[in-house]
Design a protein that fits this description.
It contains 9 helices and 10 strands. By secondary structure, the protein is an alpha/beta fold. It has one domain (about 1-130, about 170-240): 3-Layer(aba) Sandwich (Rossmann fold), CATH 3.40.50.1820. Strand 9, helix 8 (about 195-205) and strand 10 (about 210-215) form a beta-alpha-beta unit. Helix 1 (about 45-55) packs parallel to helix 9 (about 225-240) and helix 4 crosses helix 5.
Length: about 240
């Protein structure tokens, strides 16, 4: 495991690289964490271990905390450019929750990825945040900045945050990616992003696509790696980087 600092305009993004055993040039997955999440969470280490066993690297990085979706896309672009210049062009982009939404929006604008893996991905970001923030969402719509608590930590949001969300049409983005292997993973008991979002994205996506629905699984992927990582590994081996490639 190697710590990296990736330049992103005037910012620097912290990242951790789990290199492929045979070195640079092997396929690599870039993993985007959720809005209030961390690159350490969501069974990331377990996923890295599984990928290394099939000679695939994983790079996980930290977004600027609580930034808007457009800023996340800019930061993903910086990470992808860094990977292409230093390691490989065989890149799968993966994300959880809002990180999955950012990954999807980026993929629709890049068109040079090898695959896309979406975990607990919203199909409609405004409605998702309306459900999470409730009355505070209306305050944002009316021009007020707000501070909410997430697991005891303050999260500061401005009206620009939700205004930016409306710029993105995620179903249209996934429709435009026909031909790119897509894997969608979602918990059937996810109360933050209901499973209807996954079904909408899957129904809209072109082939090749795969949907994994996890019974009795909520929004968090912490400690649940054994339930989805084997599918990710198999998808990479069969759909994204088959032996003939």
């Amino acid at each position: 495991m190697q710590k990296l600092i990736i330049p992103a305009g005037e910012l620097q993004l912290a990242a951790m690289l789990h290199a492929a055993p045979s070195g640079p040039g092997r396929p690599l997955m870039v993993l985007c964490h959720g809005f209030c999440g961390s690159a350490d969470g969501g069974s990331s280490l377990e996923l890295a271990d599984a990928l290394q066993k099939q000679d695939t690297a994983l790079l996980r990085f930290w977004f600027t905390p609580h930034c808007c979706l457009s800023q996340q896309l800019a930061e993903i672009a910086a990470v992808i450019d860094f990977v292409r210049r230093n390691f490989t062009r065989k890149i799968v982009l993966a994300g959880r929750s809002m990180g999955a939404a950012a990954a999807l929006a980026f993929a629709a604008r890049d068109r040079h990825l090898s695959g896309l893996c979406l975990m607990a991905c919203p199909a409609d970001l405004p409605s998702t945040f309306r459900g999470i923030l409730r009355d505070d969402y209306e305050r944002l719509k009316h021009g007020e900045a707000i501070t909410v608590l997430h697991e005891g930590a303050p999260v500061h949001l401005t009206p620009d945050f939700i205004g930016d969300l409306s710029r993105y049409d995620l179903p249209a983005d996934i429709r435009s990616l026909a031909g790119l292997p897509v894997l969608i993973i979602h918990g059937l008991t996810d109360a933050t992003v209901p499973v209807a979002h996954a079904r909408q994205l899957f129904d809209t996506a072109g082939e090749p696509k795969q949907l994994l629905l996890l019974p009795d699984h909520g929004h968090s992927f912490i400690g649940t790696g054994d339930r989805f990582i084997p599918t990710v590994s198999d998808w990479l081996r069969r759909q994204v980087f088959p032996p003939s490639l």
